[in-house]
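Hi team,

Filling in the usual template for the complex we talked about on Friday. All components are listed, including any nucleic acid strands or ligand strings, so the model treats them as one assembly.

SUBMITTER: L.P.
PURPOSE: interface mapping
COMPONENTS: four
RESIDUES: 1346
SEQUENCES:
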Amino acid sequence: MSTRRRGLLASMGLAAALALTISGCAGSGGVDAPDSSGLGDIPADTEGTVRILMESVPDTDIVVDLVASFNETYPGIEVEIETLAFDQMRDKLIASFQSSEPAYDLIVVDNPWMDDFVDAGFLEPLDARIDSTTDYQPEDFFQPLVDITEVEGVRYGVPFYNYALGYLYRTDLYDEAGMAVPNTLDELVANVQQLTTSDRAGIAMQPQRGYKIFEEWANWLFAAGGSIYDETGNPTLDTPEAAAALDAYIEAFTTAAPANSSNWAFDEAFRSVSSGQSASMISYNWNLPGLNDPDGASGELAGSFALAPMPGGKQVLGSWSWAIPANSAASDAAWAFAAWITSPAVDVERVVAGGAAIRESTLSNPTVLESGFGEDYYAAIIAILSDAAPLSQGLGGEEMIQAVGTELSEAVAGTKTVEEALADAQAAVERIQR
Amino acid sequence: MTRRTNLWSVARALLLWVAALTVTLPLLWVALASFKSPAQLNDPGLVLFAPNLDNWARVLEAGVLDAAGRSAMVATITVAISVVAGSMGAYAISAYKTGGSATRFGILAAQVLPPAVLVFPFLTMAYALRLDTTYIPVIFAHLSFVLPVITWFLIGFFDAVPRSLEEQARVDGFSRFAAFRMVVLPQVLPGIGAAAIFGFTLSWNDMFYGLILAPTQETILPVAIAAFNTFRGVELGAMSAAIIIAVVPVVIASFFIQRRLVQGISGGAVKF
Amino acid sequence: MAEVRFNKVRKKYGSTVIVDDVDIVFPDGSLTVLVGPSGCGKSTSLRMLAGLEEISGGEIMIDGRVINGLEPRDRDIAMVFQNYALYPHLTVLENIAFPLRATKTRRADALRRAQDVADSLGLGALTSRKPKDLSGGQQQRVAIGRAIIRQPAVFLFDEPLSNLDAKLRVETRFELLQIQRRLGITAVYVTHDQEEAMTMSDRMVVMRDGRVAQSGRPDEIYARPNSVFVATFVGSPKMNILSGTIADGAFTSPSGSRIAVGSTPAHDAVILGVRPDDLTLSPSPTGTAKVALVELLGPRAIVHLDASDDRLTSVVDAAALADLPVGALVDLSVRPGALHLFDPASENRLIEV
Amino acid sequence: MTSTMSFRWAMLAPVLTITGVAVGFPLGYALYLSLTDYRLTSRGAPNFIGLENYLFVLTDPRMWNAFSNTLAYVIVAVALQTVLGLTIALALQKQKWIRDLTRAMLLAPMFITPIAVGLTFRFLLNDQLGAIPAALRSIGISIDFFGPGNALMTLALIDVWQWTPFMVLLLLAGLESIPRQPIEAAKVDGASAWYTFRRVVLPLLTPVLTVAVLLRSLDALKVFEYVYATTRGGPGIETETIQYFTYQTGIQFFRLGEASAVAFVLLAIVMTLIVILFRRLQRSAPR
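RESULT (copied from the run log):
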């Protein structure tokens, strides 16, 4: 009886001892990082393999298709792209940093992770490379996207694609109702209420707890004249503007959103809009081509969708940036690929193929304007990207987003009042900042 | 009496029909979805339509079959190790009364530990031993929950085998281990089959350890299925096709084994 | 061919002594029965001999060799268990042949020898069956066949007949004995059934509380049990036991029963034992015992008697029953020379009268 | 024979070795981490901070909320599974017609990875896209399956869909291993079917039921994928389960030390429950 227990204890003790000896390895990611050459222009005869972890989305497919053309310039660099769904990719990426052996040579970084990754020393600073790359024109990137790559004045990435949000709506329904695109939050609420009929919702919303609700509501917050942070970086979530935005959000949800949609996220909302069961949604700007694609989910409704900036002109910005892990085994080759794919000329190709914009010049390029998604679309994107802000700043971005998203969800579910929820959100962000 | 019996058999048939429908309708929906185009997926009532094989093409192209093969391999190795080590250990526990009954349940308690916590120790070990490009870490992680369950399952089966069989074989000229292998083990084969299938299910379904610990570029099936849940929406059609690929072979297998399975479990396992 | 010897053999579980310094000799080629009530240590002794239980003290020797630390397989023994322990997954033939697999005998040879054994046991037609398709008696034979195929030095039987019905038990008893006699292999046989012990054994060892109460030829033990325990354990119906005094050729119990004992010397306090066959009844209107119940066994009958507070039994010829209706009063006497006297304190046999 | 001991340990050696590596090592390591301030983004060896993590999580209302959500989920899901599983097992036991096919089909849900089950139900229960709300609407019912007050129960129902088959499997085995005589005796005595079930079958089935319930409860405690696929813990924190909470804390928010402490608190509670359960079992079932 007790013999086995003793055996178990003994083996557990042994394991614990082993753990202590190995624990030196914990968090050692990046320690063995090879020194970066800091080179900007990478010689065309550079050899190496660049292993990249990317999100499995159409933007990645476009990049994959461009690899052949990259190899015409850099025949010695082999590009291996591993794609995973967003949530999986994140977990896998974090895990890969625990190794002292490089797992990936080039990665894409979502904006809330940037500060934490830099703080952990996971990423290579890129200032020297960016500034010494010939004809790179870094000033051409949309400034809000560049801001995200900057931590304490140092750039650790270059933009890959944006997911700034905007208002996506059905032009036929707006025309039918004789309405114009909303310019204020009140107009937005009034419009979507007016668009609501017995078999159609005025707006498909995404109140799923956590990331989704915060990402959507923050647009309402900006439209109400509020902000997430003030100039000094302190949260401003318990302001009258925030309360007005949350009230409006809840009013729209209860009066103009589809029935029984409390856990809806992007997927449900997109399906609802594309199938004609909702008249509009607030979502990523690059959804427009998909919605207007006759072979896509919209079917016969394709062509009747349009994009506009949020009322008030400011919206939420998300972005993916290329970054080189500090333990990259092929940082020069990695930079060669990152600089090539984001270079002005290749960016045009990428955007023509349907990739999301990162450069202002690309959107005024004649080839792009003729490519078929339409000048209005690119004009709207320029407007959107000129005034957009991310959800989080500084360390603990992910946690901050989840914390605020939880409080907002409580308010929508009715388990907290608007005031309580916002006060708690404010407190949570302040706690995380400390 | 007769009327009551009839009433019961009608109720019984009704119950089974409802249960069968509850199980099959969602699966049927998944099967239908695997043949729908994105636009057709938005229409839940659509049952009759021209089937579209794009999803299947996409799933096959995404290497779901390879992923299924890798999952089957990982699950088979995990289960094989668990059955060998588990049956030996279970016999020692059952026949020699090693450990009290509380220990028997205690074996299972570690099962509740969140994978989110255990995965990093596994990962550290994988890196430290330079095993991160092999399936060994995933297999070990799966062993951490499959082996205890299989061991625990089998203790009950061994409890049902008379001790005298082992003793007889030893007197007949065999070592204890030979007696175990040649005489005792054959008595619990059905139970081992049952335990193996259950263990296979656990390994086959695990996503999290597979995601973090499997070698890069070599995803296992649940990871491949979950990969259709992208940031730009769930690729329902493709995911449905992948689910069908994951389920059909196992259901066919379970059709053939389930009778033995139930009998196997009846042999023991549920006594303590 | 081997003699088995127990030398101060001891078995303890914790502080409980199960077998207490037992000395037994099992002569070569003999069939020795270990008999006693349950818990007396007989099975444990057998299992120590088989190597299935650890020996806590003393030595067990087979053919002069100490086998204490040996594995069962190294002891050259064969054993038949009470539940036969047939291997359920093997056929009759494979079961019988199984011990040969340990000796690396070629499969074909092993199966041929098993077939011979099966034929000799009358199992020839059943060799391809599985144990669950056999009757109890057939299973028993398979178990015996498996024990004899390897021609071991010692046979061990652990209550091998107790799962059979009464009729089959008597038949099998005889068969078993014949096989043992034919092979001449030393056999140790454990049973709780004294009748089985009496009829089968060359030597009988009666055990009680981990010790040997008495050992010897069965007829000797029957005739001269050395204690009240052995006296009552051996023989059926059970020996009548009464405490009391002997004076003037008669035994008197405190409750007033009287038994004529002939010329036995006087004892102030004594335990008297008399086998029912040796208790004679003579109807008498002044008798001290009364017929309470009569069980007819055919030519003989068991008569249950109330003698004051004592209950006694006597076995009589059926012919004598006419004089012994229920309620009849009888005088009791002991057949000459058939008296057993025991010391009331130690319960041991008193020196021969 | 000393070889009894050595044989026993030799037989246990593989399972102990593998368990030592596969369970003991991560367990020991996680225990160590739970005593440190380790973050996934921290460099170098973490600082030893004693029981600070434990003090923090034990006083964290979010942890207890997650715990009580999980408990409610487990109780509802396992209770329903037990009742349904037993009923279906009783019905299946007597069924002759296409017996193997029915049984194999009923087991199918077990073989789908839970994340896919969660995603499937997310859409099946979607008000605009799903077949189930469409069917319900036709009879005038409108439910927000993942809405406030409903979400946790919906998740429990998904669990019921996927894991009742396991219950059926075990209970069917239990029923088939019950000796015939007591049931026949009760029938001869003229007992009603219900009485026979309650007084004869159920007591005989108790050990099996206990094991089934225990296995299922331990597994249900690990609910993560359904939450991840559907509600992400919402609305509010209604469906935040202990595993989801640990995942967020440990991986999304990088605080692995703190998450490990939550894991050990959970382990301690589960162990205590098992021991209590076991004591009671031993008292009620003399054996």
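MY TAKE: Residues 165-316+396-433 of chain A form a domain with the D-Maltodextrin-Binding Protein; domain 2 fold (CATH 3.40.190.10). Confidence is low (pLDDT under 50) at residues 1-33 of chain A.

Thanks, L.
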